[in-house]
Amino acid sequence: DGVVHPAEREMLVRIARGLGLPESQIDQLEAMLRGAHGGQAGSQRSSAQQNDDAYKVLGVSPSISDAELKKVYRKLMSENHPDKLAGRGLPESMREMAEDRTQEITNAYDVIKESRARNA
């Protein structure tokens, strides 16, 4: 339904902890789900909204430097890579979710880079 209820969130936090993932990734996942169920096509959303969503997906502030942004991007990609998660015991059924997450991270990073290049 696009809404993460408190009981669902608590379950996600327990699963994340069991996999050794920080709770901040749950926040990022919630942002991703809100974007997926927001009822807005990507081309219809304003670039400002796309930028805001991209920063939320990466869990960073718009004031972050380019170097720090790249560092966070690489860290998130490493933490969420489907092959690495599979090595930590992630069930195969969750591999698609991990692949979606890495795609979301990459898309968010690309949106921010493109926005910064336009505004430079």
Overview of the structural elements:
The protein is mostly helical and 120 residues long. 69% of the residues lie in helices and 0% in strands. The protein has one domain: Helix Hairpins, CATH 1.10.287. The chain contains six helices and no strands.
Summarize the structure.
The chain is mainly alpha-helical and about 120 residues long.
Record the SSE blueprint.
Layout: H1 6-18, H2 24-36, H3 47-58, H4 66-80, H5 82-87, H6 95-118
Q: What's the CATH C level?
A: Mainly Alpha
> Averaged pLDDT, please?
81
Count of the domains: 1
Order of helices and strands: HHHHHH
Low-confidence segments, ≥5 residues, pLDDT <50? 39-44
The major beta sheet can be summarized as:
none
Structure class: mainly alpha
CATH topology: Helix Hairpins
Annotated CATH architecture: Orthogonal Bundle
| Helix content estimate | 55-70%
Specify the overall morphology: globular
What Rg do the Cα atoms give? 15 Å
Count of individual helical segments:
6
Q: Would you count the extended β strands for me?
A: 0
What distance separates the N and C termini? 39 Å
**What fraction strand?**
under 5%
Features:
single chain; 120 residues; mainly alpha; Helix Hairpins; 69% helix
